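INTERNAL AUDIT FORM
Audit reference: QA-55
Scope: verify that the stored structure record matches its stored sequence.
Auditor: D.O.
Record contents follow.
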Amino acid sequence: MQRIPVIEHAGLDHRSPFRFLLALVVRQKAGVIWAIVSSGIWNTSQVVIPVAIGWALDDGIAKHNNDQLILWSVVILLLGLVRSAMGTAFFRQSTFTATLSSCLTMQLVTRHVTALGASLSRKHDIGELTANCTADVPAIGAGMQHLGRVLGSVIAVIAIIVLMFTIKIPLGVVVLLTVPAVIVLGGYLLRPLHRHQGDYRSQQGRLAGRAVDIASGLRVLRGIGGERPYAKAFHADSAQLKVADARVARAEANLGATDLLMPGLIAVIVTYAAARFVLNGEVTIGQMVQFYAFAVFLTLPLHDIMDGANQLTLSMVAAGRVTALLNTPVPDRAGPVSAPESRGTVHLVDPDSGLDLPPAALTAVACARPGDAEMLTRRLARFEDSGEVMLGEESLSSLPIADVRSRVLLARNNDRFFAGTIGHEISPSGTAAPEKIADALRIASATDIIDALPDGLDTQMTGRGRTFSGGQLQRLRLTRALLTDADFTLLVEPTNAVDAYTEHAIATNLAQRHKTEPSRRSTVVFTVSPLMLQQAQSVAFVIDGRVVATGAHEELMENQPEYRTLMVRDDASVVGR
């Protein structure tokens, strides 16, 4: 059994769709060559069978020569065995070629999406990415699968023309003139098909993106009464996609009709001409059978050529979309790696907002607008390269992205859990000691969650943690963030889904952790919860993206009317909880 290789780091040439498809062919050139050779032998052996039948009729039956009849019967049997063996070899190899092409493309897409990281959602629609994975990758594989068949069919057509020229030149001329005409007509019909397929894929990607948005925000839509308008917009997009699909279907129908009609006309013309030659005594009955068989068989390779051209067109469209994704620039990874001794001893500073986060501290940031918290955390964690955030004496944008991710962690409420054991999901590296995991669970008030499970940390978690409540997932996310042990852990409203009692316990535990443990790590909580703000060593108050005041929670309550108004408003929501 052949294995799917892991593609090297250099990847494949993706400067254009054609270069990408060519690189896929070169990457598996031995397999592609074998597919072409086996397809050519498979088709050519079928072409030669009518020749053997014709000679069996003329040399065996017509002349009552049993030896010749037996000889040509054996030849026909051997040709049938060759065709069967080569057909099996071709289909096995073409299937593997399609699978390998799809897997290599998926490897490249997955690797590039991982490298893009947080910048992906700003540069590409999630629906487009879903369409790339579900439609474009298989289309590229199907195109590679048809490549060998198309070239093998071309070999068969050439063989038919050569054989017909050797038997009767006028009939060879007829085929030589009509076959290129059929191919040219097919190419003409492929142009609108190519255009309509591109439009269809674009609309399909937009509709997939809208479906993803609906699926992820259905509860919110229902809560604000937006379900019906969104459904109406989805149906409108779906109707447009249906119209685009109809255009593709019409273009494919025109191509399919040509695929059936033109080879059929060739068969009628050749058969009629051969019959006239028989009546005139210019060809034998055996040659007449050969011409008829050639004409009928000619429909098969021509069909494969037209169908393959259609599939290769689809592959070119799909490759264009894949290369557009692969050509998206990756955030710069260059830059010096910071010295280990500097970790945990420097400030994280955002000059644009005036936010200065000290090391080894529990700091809270209260934003008057929720959007400011999102903007600041994305900038501080370098999820977007806007502004000049400084980590000590170095600009965050000059550091390798891997170094930034290890030193600044952004934990949000929409972070995902994957299927696996809970122990692996809260400590993906697997290096956390059991006592450290237990301490993180205690700080996040999540010990009771694990205790209630039959297998504890070895309990299997479903994708997205669907079996847990929102509050439980929030506490498990906090546990995972604490176990990461980054220099700066940025938490965005880490307790807004739990009850007030649990929230107070978490806030107290976080404060106690920074008071009693000699840690050089800093925890930054973006929240407007008074229960959490009371425990912070320092609070930064942000209005319109700028820090307007810093100090203890009590000081800000006394000296900042806007801060006091914000806290009173949030107190009402806590009571509601």
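Auditor finding: record pair retrieved intact. The chain has 18 helices and twelve strands.
Action required: none
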